[in-house]
Amino acid sequence: MMAKIAIIQGHPDPGGNRLCHALGDAYSEGAEGAGHTVTMISVGNLDFPLLRSQSEWNAGAAGTPQGLVDAQKSCLEADHIVFIYPLWLGTMPALLKGFLEQVFRPGVVMSEGDSFPKAKLKGKSARIVVTMGMPALAYRYFFMAHSLKNLQRNILGFVGIGPIRSTLFGMVEQASDARRQTWLDKMRALGRAAR
Predict the structure, then answer these.
(1) How many CB atoms lie within 10 A of CB 46?
(2) Which end of the chain is more exposed for a tag (fewer CB within 10 A), N or C?
(3) What is the rounded average pLDDT for all residues in the chain?
(4) Residue 112 contacts residue 157 (beta carbons within 8 Å)
(5) Rg (CA), the chain
(6) Is the peptide bond before 163 cis (omega within 30 degrees of 0)?
């Protein structure tokens, strides 16, 4: 079954040429080769303000900056959303968090006015891909993957997305070309499977 996939490239460097960009391109290549429809959203190339007040947050879809309307629509229409970002200070880069705050607004991903808001993104799945300088096992078991779990449970799960799978690539600065090629091959395979 063919899927609509939105890839959110969360590396804030607009120049590209980073491992995160290569991983996103490999996933896209695999997905498109298998017949899936792919939309790439590069957060580093978008111009948008950060939210600074509750009234801005509560503006719902009407408050979405014009430069993010297409990205928001792509996320809402996707069957599967892929998030790719480097681990910075133990979590996602601030620009990616700002993007999520703007795009995943009340009324857009959650119903408004209910005592218990209803998640509006049920039926969508996600994959989170994180690159890091430390060993992935240290992040997952010593640091308990706290920021990954926050994104899974408190953001994506909260709005109804599931299942949510994750892929961690550690020790990226020391990785050999052969190791990086293995990672790219893995991303192509995930793209083909839309997982």
Answers:
(1) 18
(2) N
(3) 95
(4) no
(5) 16
(6) yes
Q: Are 99 and 68 in contact (CB under 8 A)?
A: yes
- Chain centroid, CA 10 distance in Å: 7
What is the DSSP secondary-structure string of 42-65?
Answer: EGGG---PPP-SHHHHTTGGGGS-
Q: For residues 5 and 35, give the distance between their C-alpha atoms in angstroms, rounded to a whole number.
A: 11
| 6 and 194 Cβ atoms separated by less than 8 Å | no
Band of the pLDDT at 113, cuts 50, 70, 90? low
7 close to 190: Cβ distance less than 8 angstroms: no
Q: For 125-170, write each residue's pLDDT tens digit.
A: 999 999 999 999 999 999 999 999 999 999 999 999 999 999 999 9
**Closest-CA residue to 130 (of 88, 161, 76, 168):** 168
- Sign (positive/negative) of CA torsion 112, 151, 12, 72? negative
Cβ-contact 185, 167 below 8 angstroms: no
- φ, ψ for residue 96 (rounded to 5)? -65, -40
Q: Which of 44, 122, 38, 119 is nearest to 82 (CA)?
A: 38
Give me 166's structure tokens: 């994750």
